[in-house]
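#structure-requests
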Amino acid sequence: MLFVATLETLPGKYEVAVRMFKRPTVPKNVKIHHFLGLFGKPDCIVVFEAPNEKAAADFTMQFAGVAEVTTSLALDISDFKWTH
């Protein structure tokens, strides 16, 4: 399963957050495709694979002390059925 997480650094946590973003703990069952810093908000975006929602949550929760984390399941646009 493919996921996208956005990370918005909490006030006063920038230095710690950047260190964590540069060297995240990546479980064996998670594969990071992209970990990108952004100009503006949110501060970072992570595109990653995990076998299920629990594994995705376990991975992204490491950032909860330094950032507001929003994680979404990502689907290939061709899987969307509401248009022809």
